[in-house]
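Hi everyone, sorry if this is the wrong subforum. Our group has a chain we'd like a structural model of before ordering constructs, and none of us has done structure prediction before. Sequence below.
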Amino acid sequence: MQFSAAQIALIISGTVEGNPDVSVASFGKIEEAKAGQLAFLANPKYEDHLYTTDASIIIINEALVLKQPVAASLIRVPDAYSAFATLLDKYQQIKTQQLTGIQEPAHINATAKLGENVFIGAFVYIGEKAVIGNGVKIFPNTFIGNNVVIGDNTIIHAGVKIYHDCVLGKNVSVHAGTVIGSDGFGYAPQADGSLKKVPQIGNVVIEDYVEIGANTTIDRATIGSTLIKAGAKLDNLLQIAHNVEVGNNSVIAAQSGVSGSTKIGKNVMIGGQVGIVGHIQIADGSKINAQSGVSKSMKLPNTAVTGSPAYDYTAALRSQAISRNLPELEKRVKELENLVKALTEKK
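Answer:
Right subforum, don't worry. Here is the predicted structure as tokens:
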């Protein structure tokens, strides 16, 4: 597929500087791009490459003042990074929209309902009364359980497992190896010391425009629903426990775990390898630094924490600064002690 600078500018609402008819067929990093490729510049540290790259088209911020002439055609936009993301998304949509039909072998229960323009890869299993929306793409070796509902234009990558009764909204993306709707971790201690399993009869509900990374697990609720709200972005290798709620447009980075019944607000940012205990609340706009351990509710919106146990981010930085100076402080204390001792002996 080839696109001209004028066509690309139309897609991302940009303004062309240079030849609007020059075309590209692929993408490249600005420091490596070749003729016939499109690049972008958002980070000022890469600006020097703007004047030496062989890229044919470059997306730049409209506020950027050029230091010297540029050979490529430029497309100016308010935010080059966001515009490039929009363009990549459009490119990916065009590629995936071309996938339609049902590969063999695949098992689709007679009671399942398939929308229009779906793609079902080889070795996919779709259970009883499952509902698959229009434009859904399900890649090979995927399991879709009984009564699962998948909304329009959702993409399910290879090897995903979605257990019975779970619901996915529109324009959701689930990456390879993820498991949605496995049992929550619930056991009742018995008098004899054994553990009795508590049946997990709820489900998982994933709203529109959610993206879930590879090899993430989201447990079904004991009763009710584990809920991932619209716009949330979950990274690879996460554990989301039963009855957890993740708010709108919240982001959780890789290798983090959220224990049961915790409620995470909207626009929350959680770094990698964070552990969050169960039955607490994380307020809207909270920021949790990587490798933090959150053991109590964060009730005040738009606050940041770090450490294990996690506490106020700014206070933590001050403590770290003091701890780095401890050897010098110890030396000064010893000097003062020696001085006091000498003065005492003179008396």
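For your construct planning: The helical segments are 5-12, 47-50, 80-97, 313-324, 326-346. The CA atoms of residues 83 and 89 lie 10 Å apart.
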